[in-house]
Amino acid sequence: MNVWLLVLDTKGVNVWCAAGKGTFGTDELVRSIQAANLKQVVRHRDLVLPQLGATGVAAHEVKRATGFSVHYGPVRARDIQAYLAAAGRPRRQCGALLLALESASSWRL
User: Fold this and answer.
1) What span, in angstroms and rounded, lies between the C-alpha atoms of 95 and 63?
2) Which residues make Cβ contacts (< 8 Å) with residue 62, sequence separation at least 6?
3) Is residue 96 classed as helix, strand or coil in its secondary structure?
4) Nearest to 70 by CA among 86, 92, 51, 83
């Protein structure tokens, strides 16, 4: 798989929580796109973001500010290749997130 990665600093917080906290959001994404001079790096104008970060990103504002279209990819990184092979159409198994009770019980609330 031949891709470029643009990484946002979420201060050690996972994407899902960072989207709610404000460290994975529209402003951070726009700043990173501009700082990386991404328009000069890639020919396309599409970004695939982690699905669980969707609550923090206003796709229409990213498009207006940068010219890049936001697409929300699969929940798990291991499903990115299948997502891209399906031309960006999410497959059912790529969009499901099942949280086992035993893992949820270890969360600190």
Assistant:
1) 23
2) 26, 29, 30, 33, 47, 68, 70
3) coil
4) 51
CA 17/CA 68 separation, integer angstroms: 24
Tokens of 16: 């899902």
Rounding to the nearest 10 degrees, give the CA dihedral for residues 97, 98, 103, 106: 60
CA 25/CA 17 separation, integer angstroms: 11
User: For residue range 32-85, what is the model confidence (pLDDT) as tens digits?
Assistant: 999 999 999 999 999 999 999 999 999 999 999 999 999 998 888 888 888 888
What's the pLDDT at 4? Answer: 86
Among 40, 30, 36, 32, CA closest to 8? 32
pTM: 0.77
- For CA atoms 3, 43, 58, 65, the dihedral sign is positive
